[in-house]
Design brief:
mainly alpha; 6 helices; about 75% helix; about 0% strand; globular
Length: about 140
Amino acid sequence: MNARDVVQWLSQSQAKLQDAGQTTISNGTRMDATWDAVLLACMAVACAQGWRMTSDRGHHVVVLEGACHALGLSELRFDELDILRDWRNRKYRAGYSVDTDELAEALEWVAPFLRDVATWFDENHRAMIKRGVAP
């Protein structure tokens, strides 16, 4: 595992969450950023666990499922984030636009998830994070 990659994914995840909060950009772009925040955090968890990710069909749900399992999150929490994944994927359907209420709900789900990820790293991989930020 590469500690620097983990730290970069976690940092990028936080940046994506901040991007998602920018009301001057379209809801579609904000929903993409919201999902990216989740996906990047999941990639960091997978890397810390020593899991290898691929770009095969369904890889987003696989890495989400693995991260939720590693963090010990409930099925309900997984389902919420999986709904977000589905909402984000609707952009590939003609005529779809992101509903403001769905975006707000997605943001409400992601912030606690990222806090859970941060807590998990602090409790389980503190040394890795220190190595990842060291010059």
